[in-house]
Amino acid sequence: MKLHWSPRSPFVRKVMIVLHETGQIGHVDCVRTVVAAGSPPSPDLLIDNPLGKIPTLVLDDGTCLFDSRVICEFLDARAGGRLMPGHERFKHLRWQALGDGLTETLLLLRGELQRDAAHIGLVESYRSKIGASFAAINAEMAELDRVPFGLGHIALVCAIGQLDFRFGGSRWREAFPRMASWFAGLAERASIVATVAKDDGPQGGTDTTAFLDFTKIS
Asked: Which domain covers residue 26, as residue numbers?
């Protein structure tokens, strides 16, 4: 199988964690594919995914799968469904929706901040949604601890990891110490250590590292 891949993408990271957790990492050839807003999509990627997005997985028979939710479910089913067992399936799907939505909001916020003149209304809307999402995750710590590690946890880890990657000065651990302890425990898993986001290209645009401060978000 071939995976259109980037070490920066939180959605690619979801797929990579699933590959590690299910023992399939050696079955995939990762192809570095650059996707950037405002730049022409990769011609090679467009052949496999007309939306021009990553991750995109190309199966051995030529079938192309996208987006991360479809790919992760396919890979988990291929390995026996351990990451979304039937009795907990909808919990994992719900947490995945929350994690993916939070990730998308973080990406939108960073994109807006890169503009010459960011739209203040949009920025504040994104900031409010991010704060509310963290509060919602924090409220479910007991259940997240109870349910065995699976796709929902992976999506939430990738969302929080994206915050650390692009908004490293957010101080979210001070605002949510219980969640910080939970996250620190998961961060020791081999699959999560192996997939930490990295910037493998030139830095550019506005530095958003210190933009969010969770000790000041109501």
From this structure: 2-78
